[in-house]
Every structure is written in C-alpha cells, then in structure tokens.
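Hi F.,

I've been meaning to write this up properly since the lab meeting, where we talked about keeping a consistent format for the predictions we share between groups. The idea is simple: the sequence comes first, exactly as it goes in, then the structure tokens exactly as they come out, then a line or two of notes. No screenshots and no reformatting. I'm using this chain as the first example so we have something concrete to point to.
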Amino acid sequence: MTLGLVLLLAAELQAGEAFPALKVVPWNGHKAATSLTFDDGDPSHLDVAVPELNKRKMRATFFLIANKIDRKDEWRGILRTGHEIANHTLDHKHAGELTAKDANAQVVGARNVLQKEFGVGVSTFAYPFTEITPELRMGVTQTSLLARGGGDRLVPLSGEIDWWNIPAYTTMTDLPFRTYKGWIDGDLKTRGWLVLIIHGLEGTSWGWQPISRKMFARILDYLQSKDIWVGTFLEVGSYLRAQEIFEKSLVRVSGREEILTWLVPDHFPSNIILKVRTLRKSRKVELWQAKTRIEPDAQGNYAVSFKAGELTVR
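Output, unedited:
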C-alpha cells in the first residue's frame, strides 16, 4: 500500500469509466503525528504540563491510576480543554504480581471507576511498567480500542500494527534536547506517529525521572514549529485505525453508485472524521452520508464520518 492508504474503487460505470480512487489524507492533513502521554496522575501534570499545553492549544493524554487520584475537580477540568483521561489500572502493580483474576480486575475495574468518576468513555490503556502478560492483554482487548506499550519505536503510517501494544519513547531526566529533537525529526522523516511517555515534571515530589519545565517547553515549542499533528493518544490512534479499516471497505455497486461499508470496532469514538480526497479529476463525483451530500473544503478534502460505517459515491 502506497503512502496515504489509497483505496481503489474498481467497479465500472455504465459508460465504461471507473469511479475515481479515494485517498485518505494521512495524519489529519499533517506530515506526521505526535501524542504526549503522561503516567500516574502526578500533580506536576496539573501544575506544569497542562498550563504549558493549554498555552499552545495542544491536547494530551493522562493515564490515571484509578485508586490513587488526587485533585479530582482539576482532572475534570482538563476534559473541557480537550485532554484525554485514560486507564492505567487500579493500583499500578507489576504484571508478575497479578493472577488472571487480578489482572482482569485491574483493567476492567479501573475503567469502571474512571468512567463513573469523570462521566466520559475511557477507551485507551497504558500498561504499568510497560509490562504485558496474556492475562492483562485479554482485559485490555475487551475494554479498550488502543493500548500503549513501550519499545522505543515510531508507529508507521502503514503496515502491521498491534493496536494493543503501541510503541512509545520515554523521557528521562538526563536526556539532552538533541535526543528529543532526533525523535521528532525521525517522526517527520518517516511520516509516522511518535508517542512520548512522560512521568514526573519539575516540582514533583514523587514522579519518576522528572524533566524540567524548560525542557518540556522546549519540546513543545519544537513540535509546534513543525507540520506535526499533536493530538491525544485516542485521537491519533483512532484516525490511523480508521484508515486501515476504511481502505478495506466492502464495495457494493448499485446502478451508478458505489456504496462502501465497514465495521466500526467496539469502543470507537463517535467524533473521528477522516479527510478523504479523490485522485481523479476527469469527472465530477459526489460523496454522501446519511442522505447528506458532503461538500469538499478549500483543499478538496471531504469530511467522512467513520462512525457512520457507510459512504456512497455517485
């Protein structure tokens, strides 16, 4: 599959001309993507990370330990600015300490607590210590759309992706800025998805491997200077997963129409909009969803609702 996840619509029209190909625009129209993820609900996330992110209108994901949440009203507040609250188990125990029953309770129980406490759906998960066992993974696949692991790798635009073990890089106290710059530059070069794991920040009393506010701000400013989509783990991962599913859509021909259908996975957010572009300019086409015609924007992109599970091409 070429860059951009090209979906070829090969059915012939009555006049003998094929429908135009459709291309999903990668990374919501950007050259690459990055997700900033924060573990453990450290107070420094509220004191340092959120203000710096909000100043730049960036959104991030905060993986909370359900039984260890302080300052709940402030965590509720970050939802109003588009940040994501996500599942980091009930107690952040090592995987080897858990029986199969315990593992399931840590995943499912934490999701239930977070959803009740914050009144939002929780669809993503991060493995404590990046430790994965079959028992933990089973609970994760049943309750989550995506899960973050470790491994110091970028996520490619195309190819085989394990949606319940998305690789990520971890920030460390002693790493110089050139290391983070290298990760970001590599993300742009490969047109991939960079996921960062961040624990403590300046001022933390217990956060692991804290980084200074100055270093954090420098990372954000460098990201902001590039054509990179900085979105939550759920936003970016859902868009990428939607591309994979959309390109495998079933196509049914009905007269001069082609009707594309696809299955929407459990726990999928309802607000994921794919940017779709037609490749052939030789003839005019129309895209329809729910009896509504989709008009292209100034760049020629059509906003396709993935949750609808269907698209008609005329």
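Notes:
The chain has two domains: 6-27+239-313, 31-226.
Residues 1-20 have pLDDT under 50 and may be disordered.

If this format works for you, I'll send the rest the same way.

G.
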